[in-house]
Batch of 2 targets.
Target 1
Amino acid sequence: MTRNILVTGGGTGIGLAVARHFAEAGERVFITGRRADPLEEAAKALGAEPLVCDHTDPEAVAALVDRLPDPVHVLVNNAGGNTDFDADGRTDLAAYARDFRANLDANVLTAALTTKALEQRLAPGGAVIQIGSIAADTGAGSYGAAKAALTTWNLSVAGLLGPRGITANVVAPGYIADTEFFRDRMTDQRRETLVAATKTGRAGAPSDVAGAVVFLASPAARHITGQVLHVNGGAHGTR
Ligand code: NDP
């Protein structure tokens, strides 16, 4: 059976790698993003279908759902990132509130709106996968707080969808190179520090995260739900 798969933020980085894994397996893949150009380029390369959407905007998300097939078997809430990289440097309290909300919007509201809008369209036996972050456990200001909130909210999603046989899990990457996440802010020193923190001695690749997502969406993972799967080379361990 060919499944319908939605990968939000699928035009670059981790989302692109996830979309590629599913597309190469013969699934029907839809990718979203706010910028049409990288999205269309990626879709063409993958044989996926590009849909421009800002997942913080309820109207845009509602319009997106109208353009998706019924049912959707797998939803990957990957759109997000640390919006502090785009902050204007203002440090007054109003700017702090604005910047804090930006990370909550980018990383929690995106997933919540998309999941809510698609809730009735998700196929029994399907899967919802949130892309969290090591920052949920290790910090990183409002970005870490947002990813922690995403992870806790996922527990409710697992409870809501579980009776229909739909799983909901978080894949929490550590440092993943070759994405647009860090803009041009990654210094050699910072990169060396992040790699040194791993037990594998290397940066993660987008395909490392894609492998975990594909597993959680597979028949092998139908009794795994409400969990966090860490993909960080051992940089942050769990019991
Ligand atoms: P990228 O910046 O390459 O990917 C983010 C994608 O999300 C872009 O394609 C972007 O496209 C899209 N996006 C962002 N906001 C929205 C929005 N509101 N609506 C629609 N699309 C949106 O970085 P990564 O691939 O690294 O990031 C993917 C996910 O992985 C993020 O959730 C990030 O927080 C998480 N992550 C990344 C880590 C890393 O080290 N790289 C580590 C831990 C977690 P556009 O700008 O066109 O909208």
Note: The pocket of NDP is lined by residues 8-9, 11-15, 32-35, 53-56, 78-81, 106, 110, 131, 133, 173, 175-176, 179-181 (CB under 6 Å).
Target 2
Amino acid sequence: MTMTIQDKTAVSFHYTLTNQDGEQIETSRDKEPMTYLHGSHRIIPGLENAMTGRSQGDEFQVTIEPADAYGEKKEANIQRISSKHFRFPKKLKLGQVVSLQTKKGPLQVTIVKVGRFNVDVDANHPLAGQTLTFDVEISAVRDATEEEINHGHAHGPGGGDH
Ligand code: ZN
């Protein structure tokens, strides 16, 4: 009995993510496979689309353009902030990711420039603007439970926790 990936299935998979320069960004190989509810848009669109119709044991590689991954980098997301909003502005390093308190809650930003009075931060997702390649191995496919469908995410190891 082979179950194929379609909406309302819970899918567990291992992945290795590399960027357009062939550098490895992330892998699940050293931990539990990731589990998601197919059709719930919890993973990037390009990857979710590539999963449809696959089944347990399938291995494949997919390359995804920014528009179907984390989007294009937006210039408007790069902002200049007064140094006084940072506790230790002199210790900031280029490329460092820090959490800023905003009216909408904490925001992860990357430090792109440290000036005397101001700091430029980039609030784009760190993978925005990048073409990404995923090497995927499907570990398991099963029917999602009623509860998972109601919640809009998968439960259990590698899935969403509350
Ligand atoms: Zn839940």
Note: Residues 151, 153, 155, 160, 162 surround zinc ion (CB under 6 Å).
